[in-house]
Amino acid sequence: MHDIGNPPFGHFGEAAIKHWFRKVLAPDASIEFDNCPFLPIRYSADRHLNELKQTLRQDLCHFEGNAQAIRMAHHLLKLNLTYAQIGCVLKYTRPAYWQGATPKEFSYLMKKPGYYWSEAEFVKEVQEKLAMKDFLSFSTDLYYGSGR
């Protein structure tokens, strides 16, 4: 399962996807100057709907292979994996739409997006079933066999 969500060309591919989405979606655009070509996520007069659209734009503008792996396993491929298997894929604990400051003690676990808005409820379910706290990640230790 490791790297299942990574695009062609690895980190360069991730950077290209992020750059394209940031250029096209302009996640920080205002309602007055929103030139988003995708009507479903173009800002409107509805403030609450705009909050969701902003979240989705942030998700797309912060593409990350590990977060995409969770999306692929759960929504796109609909793999029937155990909570433990998904827990091992959950390398980072920060949602892609996160805009707050990263707590210093969790800087490694939150340095990249670990999941998208569309999988947030599922990730919460996985964390509850596995008794994982938001700040815990077991995937690196399990995958590489290293202890920190």
Ordered list of secondary-structure elements with their pairings:
Elements: H1 10-25, H2 47-61, H3 65-76, H4 83-89, E1 94-95, E2 113-115, H5 120-129, H6 139-144
Parallel strand pairs: 1-2
Brief summary of the model shown:
The chain is mainly alpha-helical and 148 residues long. The chain is 45% helix and 3% strand.
Key phrases:
3% strand, 148 residues, globular, two-stranded parallel ribbon, Deoxyguanosinetriphosphate triphosphohydrolase, EC 3.1.5.1, mainly alpha, dGTP_triphosphohydrolase_C, 45% helix
Give an account of the 3D structure.
The chain is mainly alpha-helical and 148 residues long. It has one domain (10-144). Helices cover 45% and strands 3% of the residues. The chain contains six helices and two strands. It has helices at residues 10-25, 47-61, 65-76, 83-89, 120-129, 139-144; strands at residues 94-95, 113-115. A two-stranded parallel ribbon has the order 1-2. It is globular and about 45 Å long. Residues 136-140 have low confidence and may be disordered.
